[in-house]
Amino acid sequence: MVAFLAFLGVTAAFGVDASLPAFDEIRPDVGLDPGSNRITLVITVYLIGNALGQVLCGPFADRFGRAPVLRVGLVIASLGIVGTISSQGLPTLLASRLLWGLGNGAPTNMRATVARDLYLGDHMARVVSRVMGFFLLGPIFVPLIAEGILALGSWRTMFTLGLALAGVGTVWSLRFGETLDPVDSRPLGWAATGEAFNQIFKNRTTVGYLVALTFTGAAFFIWLGSSQPVFDLVYGRADQFAVMFSASGVVAAVGFFSVGWFINRYGAHRVAVTSIGMVLVLNIALVALVARDGGQPSFWGWFILLTASNAFLSMVVPTGLALALRPLGSIAGTAAGVIGACSMAGSAVLAAMVDTRISTTITPMAVGYLLYGTLALAGAFWARPRGGGQGGDAGSGAGSRADGPTPSSFA
Fold it and tell me: How far is C-alpha 119 from the chain's CA centre?
């Protein structure tokens, strides 16, 4: 199960991870000037499409099951990949990227939905942390693989790997089976969907963690969208980007794998709050360096502080997601879609507001991390989990299992 859900995450993230090393090659092919920051729109529109895909597939997954919705999403993503490969201009490229992200909203949604079908509370947080840890093999290895392909061929050739991933995901889904219990199937219609949305946004814990996930995601998306231009334009180290980006992914993976121990000891809520607090401490230090050095602190000072910040941000994802979904087991697909869509779309827009201001200094990046971290901490404090103390396994929801799946969980 962990391997399958992690693979779905890699499939969805490939559209971002493989794009970053190819910025320099994509720019001239779609009519952009060398060094143009408009290339970051390739990431932004993909993330917006992914967000829309998550919220659209949620009600269908609650009605028809997880597996068929996943397969339809992978087909749509494949159409977007074909369009991306054949694009000759920026408008066509962005439209294709939007479609690619829209289709990959299904595998993104299914990671949380399937986990919520089978687990609850702190147990779900521990499982999701393992999934995310293995999922980070993508950001570690995909940029390196992309660099190797770019050295031998074009960025269009590199993106054909996305088609292979979609094919493997489709075949694997046939073997994995279905996790939606037939008794939990919900009617598909405006009234039922509206009721589910009302249930989501009236829950204080869910909304509070949605806010926290949105702002922590915005900070991390600043890194995704601007790290390559910073390596290139600020520090003149474009040739080192793939290796260093992968190294930062290794550190984040350590955070994912270690978060389970902290959840066992302190509870998911306390881990989330402490992790965001550490991001603030690190970025206060970074802002101080930026102020001292005129917006261009030493490369290693910037890289180490941001890498450590991202490791703590990674610990917020499984804890915040598990706590946000804990009260909503009976509408897990819709809830996962709404939470994923709102957090991802909000994160993408907030990150883009910072990305477009980064040119020759990292000041916008440092300030953005600090501001968004502060707002995320406010959301986590406001959430105040109830009934489960620090976010334990107490809770309700059809199909929930505190100790893991049983054979009858799968069709």
Answer: 20
- The residue among 224 and 304 whose pLDDT is bigger is 304
Residue 289 lies in a domain: yes
Q: What is the DSSP letter of 391?
A: T
For residue 31, tell me if it sits in a domain: yes
The pLDDT, as a whole number, for residue 63 is 83
Helix or strand or coil: residue 66? helix
Are residues 152 and 350 in contact, defined by beta-carbon separation less than 8 angstroms? Answer: no
Residue in 179, 124, 186 with CA at minimum distance from that of residue 334: 186
For the full predicted model, state whether its pTM sits above 0.90.
no
Instruction: Tell me how far apart the terminal alpha carbons of the chain are, to the nearest angstrom.
Output: 14
CATH code for the domain of 311: 1.20.1250.20
Q: Are 293 and 347 in contact (CB under 8 A)?
A: no
Q: How many domains does the chain have?
A: 1
**pLDDT tens across 244-277, in order?**
887 887 888 777 777 777 877 888 888 889 999 9
Examine residue 195 and state whether it is found in any structural domain, yes or no.
Answer: no
Chain-centre distance for alpha carbon 112: 11
Q: What are phi and psi of 395, to 5 degrees?
A: 155, 180
Binned at pLDDT 50, 70 and 90, residue 199 comes out as confident
Q: CB-based contacts of 97: which residues, under 8 Å, 6+ apart?
A: 15, 42, 45, 46, 49, 80, 84
Range of the domain at 358: 2-176+203-392
Length in residues, the chain: 411
Instruction: Please indicate, yes or no, if residue 193 is contained in any of the structural domains.
Output: no
